[in-house]
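[step 3/7] fold_predict: job queued, chain A
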Amino acid sequence: MEHDVFISYSNKNKQTADAICHVLEQHNIKCWIAHRDISIGEKYGNVIEQAICSCKVFIIIFSKESSQAPWVESELNIAFTDRRVIMPFRIDSTKLEGEMRLMLNNKHWIEAYPNPEERFAELVAAVARQVGIKITPSASSLPNDDFPFNRKQPLPAEEKEKQKTQQKTCPNPACKRTGLSAEAVYCPYCSAKLTDPGCDLVNFTEIVNDVCFDMVVVEGGTFIMGSNNGDEDEKPIHKVTLDNFYIGQYPVTQKLWQIVTGSNPSYFKGDHLPVEKISWDDTQEFIEKLNLKTGKSYRLPTEAEWDYAARGGNQSRGYTYSGSNSIDDVAWYDGNSGLKTHPVGQKQANELGLYDMSGNVCEWCNDWFASDYYANSPEFNPKGPATGGRRVFRGGSCLSIPRRCHSSNRYYYYPIYHFDLRGFRLAFIP
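[step 4/7] structure written:
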């Protein structure tokens, strides 16, 4: 059966799963749901895995029951490993724990309460956007009789007026819809998480020809760049202050590179492996083509932005590596990689929810390199020397020894040369 959406649920949440399936299929979004779509005699495990790996969106109905159901965790693990778009729909107050927390902590959640009608419309709109179907989000599409939540009672006139004055605007630079409900947690048009008025940046997902990549907000701040315990080019330590910016949650994958450029130069091949064996000049050609497709102004991060993000930004806990003092928690390096790259996002994220900043592939930055730049760097938003002969790249690779995976470690090379295990991640300021 061809389908767009896989719905994962516990047996006690079957009614909710049926309601979601009913609404989505009213909008011509084809769903796969186990109790309906597994035929008698089929091998359950094989059919489930195939259905998950062929869907565009994986919806997990998160509840106390599903958090304790081993098959739900198993289905989630398949979707996470295969890099499906995961949309958690929480129907009670159960908190994330264990392996599920690692897989779901940085996803865009949709909470069923306190206004289930509106949240249901948000879920439908978010799924429709991911599968490429245009709809007008509306609570009127909800089933009238079997919807598993109580309808919200009409508000008094004074409460309605209060909500009107607290309406939100979507801070996603790709959306910016206005007049959204003060109670809304996610934008019903793009699924971006809404924040209090005045906050102008939120994480968002970009879609290019059905390939998604996630951009994470890094709130500006001041930090100490460099290290007194590293190589000479990591000295002197100096204070740097940065404005807000976005950075890619993962290194650019081969699948995204191929969609944008039509080629794949990588030595180790795989859709969800980081693209590598690319020069700095190659990254500029890719970014130029990507910007034409998206209408945005993506670029490489500056070295200071990369360093600040790797350390955890204003949430930094001072780890040696990006996200931990234990390199095995956060990085593929020479001691655990098998001397090859691995799919992005398999190790633990850092404090900002960023993956693979200490290993897997090294990452090009925008800056020219100069050995004395740290001694002369401006404090505010440094962008590197104006000219030079070599460009900076940062982070360790799957062939690096632990000392070369420290967040402060620096590399540099000529921008025209291709090297195995050189990749990159995107940055963006709206």
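[step 5/7] annotate
The CA atoms of residues 8 and 60 lie 5 Å apart.
The chain is about 25% helix and 15% strand.
exit 0
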